[in-house]
Amino acid sequence: MNAKLEEQKKGTNQVTLNFELSISTKPNVVKYNTTGSVTLAGKPDDIKKKLEVNPKTKIPQILFTIYQHVFNSIYMLSANLNTPYPPPDLLHPMAEKIQILSSIPQSQSPPEKPEAPAVAPAASPAQPADKQAANK
């Protein structure tokens, strides 16, 4: 994946960035190119936080957000074109995934998912007594 972020406008409480993403699939069958702009509005500290580069991945936080939105569109497009879609976790290096997985202590099991409430089966339409007897 190749990505380009370029600041267009900067104000006290707002920053506008242009982005360009070039994403190839594995296997290398399709290459998706996407361009657009994103506007961050809010408190200057919040904007600064979204523009900061993650020291582990060397990727700005805003690029993760952009990729999540772009991925949704590419996923739908690839389904219509019957082509492979890029991995949803393309921006997360494998080392970071392993670190996240190994952060659970061995003595502690991961939290269980709550069970879905039981759904009663749909009632079948009532049959007249003579048809019920014939079915038996």
Descriptive account of the structure:
- The protein is α+β, with helices and mostly antiparallel strands and 136 residues long.
- It has a domain at 2-84.
- The protein has helices at residues 44-51, 61-81, 94-101, 129-135, and strands at 2-10, 14-24, 31-41.
- A three-stranded antiparallel sheet has the order 1-2-3.
- The radius of gyration is 25 Å and the shape is elongated.
- Mean pLDDT is 74; it is low at 94-129 and 131-136.
Descriptive labels:
alpha+beta; elongated; single chain; three-stranded antiparallel beta sheet
Extended strand count: 3
Largest sheet: 3 strands, antiparallel
**What spatial form do the alpha-carbon principal axes imply?**
elongated
Helix share bin: 25-40%
* Mean pLDDT value: 74
- The number of helical elements comes to 4
Query: How much of the polypeptide forms β-strand, as a percent range?
Result: 15-25%
Strands ordered across the widest β-sheet: 1-2-3
What is the terminal separation in angstroms? 64 Å
* Low-pLDDT segments, ≥5 res: 94-129, 131-136
Tell me the radius of gyration: 25 Å
Structural class of the secondary elements? alpha+beta
Order of helices and strands: EEEHHHH
How is the topology of this model organized?
Layout: E1 2-10, E2 14-24, E3 31-41, H1 44-51, H2 61-81, H3 94-101, H4 129-135
Antiparallel strand pairs: 1-2, 2-3
